[in-house]
Design goal:
It is a single chain. The protein is mainly α. The protein has helices spanning about 30-50, 50-65, 80-100, 120-135, 140-150, 155-165, 165-185; strands at about 10-15, 20, 100-105, 110-115. A two-stranded antiparallel sheet has the order 1-2. A two-stranded antiparallel ribbon has the order 3-4.
């Protein structure tokens, strides 16, 4: 005796006589994790990162990684796996923050302000001191040619007209100034721009 194949009516519950509704599927393990632990996960990650928006992004990525596992049933503690994955992702973001300088724009001035490490700040200040000293050591025409070109953005022709010099002299003053600065900064002579 053969049993009849299940029909479409077997997989549908009827409410009243007119509106058939599909039977609810049992929730998956990830859906249950989401319902039961998502708020706690967001609080956990948000406390690490200090940002609810970033916490939501990290949680989403953790769920995606969990869904991407081929054999989720092999992991006995999915909640622990989810929280550990989210923690690792949050730590990756924190490391990236530390290695990338924060750039802030001052809208009034149109300036970019970089948040650098103390070592980079000190190195920058020392470099500026060396450059200022090297510029003060230059003859006045060399210094003026260099500043007009590098700071004012003037072409060699414009500098020649402004200072009443030939373009060849402007090139020579520029070369002398750059050579002096390179020597003071310890750059090799063959590193030309």
């Amino acid at each position: 005796m053969s049993t009849p194949a299940p029909s479409a009516a077997d997989s549908v519950e009827t409410v009243g006589r007119e509106s058939p509704l599909p039977r609810a599927k049992p929730p998956t393990d990830v859906e249950q994790l989401y319902r039961l632990h998502n708020d706690a996960l967001l609080r956990f990650v948000s406390a690490k990162l200090g940002s609810l928006q970033e916490a939501k992004e990290v949680a989403q990525e953790a769920y995606v990684r969990l869904l991407g596992l081929e054999h989720r049933e092999a992991i006995s503690y999915l909640r622990a796996f989810l929280f550990k994955t989210a923690s690792n992702l949050a730590m990756d973001r924190l490391r990236a923050r530390r290695s990338t300088p924060v750039i802030v724009t001052d809208a009034k001035e149109g300036l970019l302000i970089c948040d650098l490490s103390p070592e980079r700040n000190v190195a920058g200040e020392q470099m500026v001191g060396v450059l200022n000293q090297a510029l003060s050591e230059l003859p006045s025409k060399c210094r003026q040619v260099l500043l007009l070109h590098r700071i004012e953005g003037m072409s060699r022709t414009e500098i020649a007209l402004r200072m009443d010099l030939g373009e060849r002299m402007v090139r020579l003053y520029m070369a002398r100034a750059l050579e002096h600065l390179r020597a003071r900064l310890g750059e090799p002579r063959n590193s030309r721009e």
